[in-house]
Amino acid sequence: MGATTCPQVRVSVSQTGDCFDCATNESLLAGMLRLGRKGIPAGCVNGGCGVCKVRIVDGAVQSLGPVSRAHVSTEEEAKGYTLACRVAPTEAVCLEVAAKLRKPFLGSATAVAQRPVN
User: Would you give the DSSP letter of residue 114?
Assistant: First the structure.
């Protein structure tokens, strides 16, 4: 049990050089988290927060559900942007993490700006 019979493909994060194998039936984010890897920021893991926003540089993905237009505009989507929690790879993928480091739901811009940086 626990072994997947689905084909796996290689996913690489261009900024860090981190690589992991991801099943073609799981999201890019789930594949990374399953292996205990880091590289793609994780938030709510269901498309609501936009923290896992990435740009597909090379390779192909398929949709696992709708992507919120609050986080990825149609113009961005045309340029390869998506949420890693809402797409699965169909072939080897190279991606760039595009999400901002500070989540928009942390509070007002003033409150976020006043938080100490650790």
Answer: H
Q: Which residues contact 68 (CB under 8 A, 6 or more apart)?
A: 47, 48, 50, 83
Distances 11 to 70, 75, 93 between C-alpha atoms, Å: 26, 24, 5
**Integer angstrom CA distances of residue 78 from 1, 28, 56, 91, 112:** 39, 19, 11, 19, 31
Residue 28's H or E segment, with its range, is helix 28-34
Q: What is the pLDDT of residues 63-94, one digit of tens each?
A: 998 888 999 999 999 999 999 999 999 999 99
Using only the alpha carbons of the chain, give its radius of gyration.
15
| Residue 63 backbone phi and psi in degrees, to 5 | -70, 140
Backbone φ, ψ for residue 111 (5° rounding):
-65, -40
The distance in angstroms from the start CA to the end CA of the chain is 41
Q: Write the DSSP symbol of residue 62.
A: E
The pTM score is 0.77
